[in-house]
Amino acid sequence: MGVIVYVEAITITILFIYEIQKYLKLCLTKMSTFSKVYGPVFTLYLGLKPSVVLHGYDAVKEALVDLGEEFAGRGSFPLSEKVNKDFGILFSNGKRWKELRRFSLMTLRNFGMGKRSIEDRVQEEARCLVEELRKTNGSPCDPTFILGCAPCNVICSIIFQKRFEYKDQNFLNLMEKFNENLRIISSPWIQVCSIFPALMDYLPGSHNTIIKNFDYVKSYVLEKIKEHQESLDVNNPRDFIDCFLIKMKEEKNNQQSEFTIENLLTTVTDLFGAGTETTSTTMRYGLLLLLKHTNITAKVQEEIDQVIGRHRSPCMQDRRCMPYTEAVLHEIQRYIDLIPTSVPHAVTCDVKFRNYFIPKGTRIITSLTSVLHDDKEFPNPEVFDPGHFLDESGNFKKSDYFMPFSSGKRICLGEGLARMELFLFLTTILQNFKLKPVIDPKDIDTTPIANAFGRVPPLYQLCFIPV
């Protein structure tokens, strides 16, 4: 009898989870439909607590930019709370978030982010990337790990003052953890766990894999922190970790200080993960689109030949002379819509927004999809078309609707670095290789294999043919 009851309980639980997954998928895919009925601001119940959805450029801009302080809170994300325990930058709030973000921005800038010095590092990594791709000898390969190594090495040079060889096993292990986490976080099961976090305490599932992966990355980072503590020279900081450790010493008598080992560990892990996975996924998705749209790829390579040639490395100055390439890079980010609803926000106080009263702490969902795929700003938004960012004369055309990094006070910390990496890495690849698909371009499917928190491209192979 007990066995029957147990089996029935499991069956009911599975059916319940299945129905919740269907409901979540419906909500996330029908936001545009809901906005047509209820307007650009509406409430969505994902579980027992209400979330306020902002749909369309005007509503998103008004909240995140015009009322930036009021909408600068970080909304609840139960899995991250389990992993980070509110430490670090990405999922913290209030004084902790403000102090850590201000310090991180200043330190990253001091180590060259947005400056010529970091451009040199990215160029050097681009050359290493090309050499690694040459080793494939034009044979079919999955570019996932190789493309992940390049941006990871750039952020490692800032945080750890070191880069890895592409075959380093520690490096490959870290890459595998980051890739697996984004894939799992974008799965329906994690969306269910976000609504009913108690499930994570009682049921097995892929959420445990994410926690193990984060523990692995954190143990590696902690090892590096200990090495830095042993060799620290307060008069000669080498990297981000050194700067944080020096700040900790300066504030050792401040009982309220946010500069603690826990915040250092989580902040470095935040920077490490965010500075690696989003850029590498964008590059991987971008190459897939370029494989499919061979005419677009040919135009980019023609512009590279005209502006840069074959005998020097691309540099950021080239970008202003390459409107078509710039348009393609923007269109890749617009089209793939990497993080469709951004990371959840929350209001930091009671807010009156467009005649609606939003209580303090309410979770805010910003539909970046509704901005990046606005059909008035980008005609035929479901079509991959660099013309979305070109005027009638073929000049690059900026758009306020370009928000792949979100906007306002919570905008991605590494936006400038990510844009630099995308330009230098992809132009260097296209300068040195012809991209050869292993199937007919018209048969290439660019539909994401995961489409919840992030949009993950399907696995694929291609050949890098030296030119």
TrEMBL record:
Binding site for heme: 412
Entry's Gene Ontology molecular function annotations: heme binding; iron ion binding; oxidoreductase activity, acting on paired donors, with incorporation or reduction of molecular oxygen, reduced flavin or flavoprotein as one donor, and incorporation of one atom of oxygen
Lineage top rank: taxon: Eukaryota
Gene behind this protein: LOC101965174
Gene Ontology cellular-component terms listed: endoplasmic reticulum membrane
GO biological process: organic acid metabolic process; xenobiotic metabolic process
CDD domains: CYP2C-like (cd20665)
Family stated for the protein in its record: Belongs to the cytochrome P450 family.
Annotated keywords: Endoplasmic reticulum, Heme, Iron, Membrane, Metal-binding, Microsome, Monooxygenase, Oxidoreductase
Cofactor: heme
Membrane topology: Peripheral membrane protein
E.C. numbers: 1.14.14.1
Stored Pfam families: p450
Location relative to the cell: Endoplasmic reticulum membrane; Microsome membrane
Cross-referenced InterPro entries: Cyt_P450, Cyt_P450_CS, Cyt_P450_E_grp-I, Cyt_P450_sf, Cytochrome_P450_fam2
Natural source organism: Ictidomys tridecemlineatus (Thirteen-lined ground squirrel)
The name this protein goes by in its record: unspecific monooxygenase
